[in-house]
Amino acid sequence: MKHSLFIFVGLLSLTSCFEYSPNQIILDDSEKNLTARNIQKISQRAPTDTLTVAFMGDSQRWYDETEDFVRHVNQFNDVDFVLHGGDISDFGLVKEFRWINEILSELKAPYLTVVGNHDLLANGRKVYTEMFGDYNYAFDYGDFRFIILDTNSREYEFNGRVPDLEWLQQMLDENTENRSVIVASHIPPWDGDFDANLQQAYAGILANDPNVVLSLHAHRHSFLDQEYYNDGVRYFVTTSMQKEGYALLKFSGSDVAIEMVSYDD
Amino acid sequence: MMIKYLKYVLVILASFIVKSAECQEKQKKWYIPDHYKAQYAGNIGFVSFGAGYLHGKDKLETDFFTGYVPEAIGGDRIMTLTLKSTYAPWKKLIRENLTLRPFSVGLYLNYSFGSQFDTISPNEYPEGYYWWATSLRVGGFIGGTLTLNRKEDYEIKRVSLYYELGTYDLIFLSFLQNTEYLRIWDVTSLALGVKFEF
Q: Over pLDDT 90: what percentage of chain B?
């Protein structure tokens, strides 16, 4: 009896050693629906006059560097949340998403994600949806509205529907309280992986809404801070985990202060 | 779905076995497999069924597997094909009817069916945009086998149990580049299997 119990417990502990496919999608309950759960956590914080967001991106297969990022950003107590600019995984495999979630769960602040082109590979689409939720989502926090957008047009064969600009316009129209708006997506509009037919339309939508204060991106593995289209909209691109850098964004009213941080030692 | 699939596999397997028995009565045709395998896990399916050949002075086995992951277990229904080679250099008779191959090493190439997996980069990507094929995985493993030798006039002459500890290209590369965060067991998984020789 005792023996069979040992064998049973032994077999049970072994089940985690078995893998059926690199493309399987097996998640713990604590690894599902993270976008909604983390927005809930953020909304429970009391917004102060200044909103601080740590904006990082392109963790891909740089786990050691992502751990160093967590250590670095955990020095600060005023970070409201961390935003991952996409390319959470490199190969779209569930193992990668789980590792990054394990690492980012060590953050003192909740984290949210943007979907990147690498996250849409293999079964990555299903993994992202199950683990985080929708590719396009929006939420309000204090005096700010965040709109997260899938701009990985190449992954949809430039079908003209990604990014979904109608949805973007709708999210801006819903902002009747005139909160300051931050739009975040993985691929910046001038990049070749963004649908060239939608580039001007995207820039135009942002420029026509006076509430928009910033357009955030990743993907290019280097910093860029520029009013790219000279239309009053500031575009900021963060660097990658491989380059060991991220940005601290501080918002108060319509003022935006951006500090580029290097944690390379 | 799972049951239906298993049924097909068993019918195919059974027809192979009947065929091989028929042929053995005359003379064994070169293409009749030397053995059949069923495997649990190992990143080529929840279950996979294979047939293969023994060559290289009886030290090398080459097998062809078809594997299946049911959605209820793997979160997605995945079907795969695998070509696998296993080299076991040493064997020892540990009892009258038991042979141990304490060490084996092998490689496999696995193909996953599905429109979400690409073998050749689609047209909309510049050359070399993604450097790997999402449908193909190359894996390696070490393992061991214990064989029960039955009487030669039995239908099934030998039954073996084997295990494999394996990893695969993309995840092993991740390990090599992240020696602080990842440990070797983070990128290793276990497979168990059974082999029948007629």
A: 74
Q: Are A143 and A112 in contact (CB under 8 A)?
A: no
Q: What is the pLDDT of residue B5?
A: 55
* Binary contact (B74, A103; C-beta < 8 A): no
* Mean pLDDT value across residues A220-241: 98
Q: Which of B76, B117, B171 is closest, CB to CB, to A25?
A: B76
Instruction: Supply the DSSP string of chain A, one letter for each residue.
Output: -HHHHHHHHHHHHHGGGB-S-TT-----GGGSSHHHHHHHHHHTS---SSEEEEEE---TT-HHHHHHHHHHHTT-S---EEEE-S---SS--HHHHHHHHHHHTTSSS-EEE---GGGGSTTHHHHHHHHT--SSEEEEETTEEEEEE---GGGGTT-S-SS-HHHHHHHHHT-TT--EEEEEESS-TTSTTS-HHHHHHHHHHHHT-TTEEEEEE-SSSS-EEE-TTSSS--EEE---TTTTEEEEEEEETTEEEEEEEE---
Q: Do B177 and A157 touch (CB under 8 A)?
A: no
pLDDT, average across residues B76-103:
97
- Mean pLDDT of all residues in B14-29: 57
Contact A22 B168 (CB under 8 A): yes
Using the structure block, give the residue that is written with the tokens 């819903």: A174
CB contact under 8 A, B69 and A24: yes
Residue A261 pLDDT more than 90?
yes
Q: How far is A154 from chain B (nearest CA, A)?
A: 7
Cα four-point dihedral sign A115, A119, A124, A130: negative
**pLDDT at residue B28 is higher than 90:** no
Q: Among B159, B44, B69, B180, which Cα is nearest to A66's?
A: B180
In this predicted structure, the answer to whether residue A145 has a pLDDT above a threshold of 50 is yes
- Pick from A21, A63, A90: CB nearest B181: A63
Q: Are strands A81-84 and A51-56 parallel, antiparallel or unpaired?
A: parallel
Residue in A21, A63, A91 closest to B170 by CB: A91
